[in-house]
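so my prof wants the structure for this chain in the tokens format not the other one, which i didnt know existed until like an hour ago. anyway here's the sequence
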Amino acid sequence: MLKIGIVGLPNVGKSTLFKALTKKKVDISNYPFCTIDPNIGVVEVPDERLNALAKAFPRPKVIPPVIEFVDIAGLVKDAHKGQGLGNQFLAHIREVDAILEVVRFFEKEDVAHVEQDINPQRDIEILERELIAKDLETIEKRLNKLSKQIKSQDKEVEKEYQLLLRLKESLGEGKKMIDLKLEEKEKAIIKDLFLLTAKPILYVYNVKGGNFTIPKELADKNHVVLDVKLEEELGEMPKAEIQELGLKSKISQVIKKAYQLLDLIIFFTMNENEIRAWEIKKGTKAPQAGGKIHSDFEEKFIRCEVIQWDKLIEAGSWQKAKEKGLINIAGKDYVVQDGDVIYFII
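here's what i got, hopefully its the right format
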């Protein structure tokens, strides 16, 4: 299951966002470090295509894609040195696939800011510096270990050593791993280091009402603007009341963007019992997509039948789609497209 870590400085709205996302009761008291052990919640990824398929072809089970959100303890400056709950914070980030950083834009006198004033750019830079510092520490440890093996003249050791020296220099210049153009072979070499700055980040700019200005340097980042407190309140209100007040939740934007953050697409499978959505990396070929369902579908793959979800609904059934020539027969080199409905043949 995909895992997204919700991070940020204390009192920026992390746990409130977690509650709005997961509808799960968590401690959102107004004081730093109220979130000590990470809260975890599983959230469905909204997909109108799955809903449309389920309506057109009713089945006992409809299984959507899901994300696991982890509400991680608040970060403070010098977390990499153990300040606050820094060691726990950085350890929990190591375990997630991507980062969702809540950045505070709102002013509220009774909700203290750990840095004493509201400055979104500074808060983002604090997190970046902490992640970079931790990665530098991780790389330094590996370099020390490799330096003892370098005399063996092992080419693989030498290759890793030189790569890590280059990465250390880039991190020292304030560059994150995700922004470096590494080759796939180089990514494989450092994979087991679980570098924090290699993780993609989605920023949630937490505003209050319509009174906010997003500076250009922050507007260029991958972000969602959200009144997090309002989203929490909407999550507790009956749908009829929300409609009556003319309000609309934007929480699904966060879920969808978090999903897209990892360059994922969805394909669907159907049988007499269920319709199911499966997530895969963009560019995945048919056998590997089948492997998400069962290893046999990859190892014994012969071919698959493919149709886009809307074409299937339009046809009315799989058989009618076949009769109209809308079903494509695809082999091992077929690259699965977002929205494909696939029947695997082994």
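also thought this was worth mentioning. DSSP finds 14 helices and twelve strands in the chain.
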